[in-house]
């Protein structure tokens, strides 16, 4: 049987508004690659991200440009050299994983050399907003064990993190500044977070300015996100950060992400498994990274007004491995 590749653009409404330091959104626009080989079908979802110079049109064009490679039988490992890292390669890579799993009749985690995937405790995101609004959101989410708090809004951030702590006094707090702080204000922001018992700070400074962290003595462990994409960035990350956020849309798929996770652990870095705002189809491959991770942030579907059919199961702060009907 010959392979076929199909590309689709889909939109999923966000429940309310999702706001970070760079702006707000009310929908998640995703691009899905579907590869069929006889009766077997594999799917992969990606989220184009303007921060990395991507658009829906550019990602669709990249996937279409790889059509001959895919339909002529190119595999995941050859894909790493055929396409650059990014959302488009992620969609194809994850579709190839799913297809390989369906053809072999074994779960994707077995193909990855993992014994099993256990349910993992995931962060739940508190969107950036006014302190009182963030406190109210924290109250509603206070039963979730880990809250990821979006900051990066400048002078009001100490009040925001204090409000979240008031709303969720027992939760473990992770802060994501999304490059929103500046070096001359960093100590004040970190002191405010330290006062509220924050466990981890993600991307406090713009990626272009984070050399300042090399000699910086932070009271809270720091995690690289926008500063960290693949193994090529790992040496600089290890000099400036304590952890790395691995996202499939940054690494260009699960194949490269697994390599990065092993290399990051060897370099002494903690790992966060992260996501863009997408459906369960985007989260499912990332669950294979959870055995490597200290922190898991795969709450994308929880931020949507509706998810895909056969979506991931979320219960009591846990995210469960995908069913084969969804992926893998």
TrEMBL record:
<dbReference type="GO" id="GO:0016855">
    <property type="term" value="F:racemase and epimerase activity, acting on amino acids and derivatives"/>
</dbReference>
<feature type="active site" description="Proton acceptor; specific for (S)-substrate epimerization">
    <location>
        <position position="247"/>
    </location>
</feature>
<feature type="binding site">
    <location>
        <position position="176"/>
    </location>
    <ligand>
        <name>Mg(2+)</name>
    </ligand>
</feature>
<dbReference type="GO" id="GO:0046872">
    <property type="term" value="F:metal ion binding"/>
</dbReference>
<dbReference type="Pfam" id="PF13378">
    <property type="entry name" value="MR_MLE_C"/>
</dbReference>
<dbReference type="Pfam" id="PF02746">
    <property type="entry name" value="MR_MLE_N"/>
</dbReference>
<dbReference type="InterPro" id="IPR029065">
    <property type="entry name" value="Enolase_C-like"/>
</dbReference>
<dbReference type="InterPro" id="IPR029017">
    <property type="entry name" value="Enolase-like_N"/>
</dbReference>
<dbReference type="InterPro" id="IPR034593">
    <property type="entry name" value="DgoD-like"/>
</dbReference>
<keyword id="KW-0460">Magnesium</keyword>
<dbReference type="InterPro" id="IPR013341">
    <property type="entry name" value="Mandelate_racemase_N_dom"/>
</dbReference>
<keyword id="KW-0413">Isomerase</keyword>
<dbReference type="InterPro" id="IPR013342">
    <property type="entry name" value="Mandelate_racemase_C"/>
</dbReference>
<protein>
    <recommendedName>
        <fullName>Dipeptide epimerase</fullName>
        <ecNumber>5.1.1.-</ecNumber>
    </recommendedName>
</protein>
<feature type="binding site">
    <location>
        <position position="225"/>
    </location>
    <ligand>
        <name>Mg(2+)</name>
    </ligand>
</feature>
<feature type="active site" description="Proton acceptor; specific for (R)-substrate epimerization">
    <location>
        <position position="150"/>
    </location>
</feature>
<dbReference type="InterPro" id="IPR034603">
    <property type="entry name" value="Dipeptide_epimerase"/>
</dbReference>
<dbReference type="InterPro" id="IPR036849">
    <property type="entry name" value="Enolase-like_C_sf"/>
</dbReference>
<feature type="domain" description="Mandelate racemase/muconate lactonizing enzyme C-terminal">
    <location>
        <begin position="131"/>
        <end position="223"/>
    </location>
</feature>
<keyword id="KW-0479">Metal-binding</keyword>
<comment type="similarity">
    <text>Belongs to the mandelate racemase/muconate lactonizing enzyme family.</text>
</comment>
<feature type="binding site">
    <location>
        <position position="202"/>
    </location>
    <ligand>
        <name>Mg(2+)</name>
    </ligand>
</feature>
């Amino acid at each position: 049987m010959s392979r076929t590749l199909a590309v689709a653009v889909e939109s999923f409404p966000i429940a309310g508004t999702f706001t970070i330091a760079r702006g707000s959104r009310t929908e998640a626009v995703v691009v899905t690659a579907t590869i069929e080989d006889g009766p077997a079908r594999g799917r992969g979802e990606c989220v184009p991200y303007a921060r990395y110079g991507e658009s829906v049109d550019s990602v669709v064009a990249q996937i279409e440009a790889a059509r001959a490679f895919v339909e002529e039988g190119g595999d995941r490992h050859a894909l790493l050299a055929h396409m650059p890292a990014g959302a488009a390669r992620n969609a194809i890579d994850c579709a190839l994983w799913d297809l390989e799993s369906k053809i072999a009749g074994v779960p994707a985690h077995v193909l990855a050399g993992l014994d099993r995937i256990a349910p993992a405790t995931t962060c739940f995101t508190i969107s950036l907003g006014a302190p009182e609004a963030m406190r109210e959101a924290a109250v509603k989410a206070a039963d979730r064990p880990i809250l990821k708090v979006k900051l990066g809004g400048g002078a009001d951030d100490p009040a925001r993190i204090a409000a979240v702590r008031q709303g969720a006094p027992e939760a473990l707090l992770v802060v994501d500044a999304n490059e929103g702080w500046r070096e001359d204000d960093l100590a004040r922001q970190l002191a405010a977070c330290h006062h509220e018992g924050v466990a981890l700070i993600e991307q406090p400074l713009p990626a272009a300015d984070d050399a300042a962290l090399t000699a910086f003595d932070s009271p809270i462990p720091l995690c690289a996100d926008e500063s960290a994409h693949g193994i090529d960035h790992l040496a600089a990350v290890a000099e400036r950060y304590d952890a790395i956020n691995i996202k499939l849309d940054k690494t260009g798929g699960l194949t490269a992400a697994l390599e990065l996770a092993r290399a990051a652990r060897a370099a002494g870095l903690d790992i966060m498994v992260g996501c863009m705002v997408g459906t369960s189809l985007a989260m499912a491959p990332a669950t294979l990274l959870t055995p490597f991770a200290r922190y898991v942030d795969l709450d994308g579907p929880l931020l949507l007004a509706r998810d895909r059919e056969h979506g991931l199961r979320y219960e009591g702060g846990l995210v469960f491995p995908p069913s084969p009907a969804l992926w893998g």
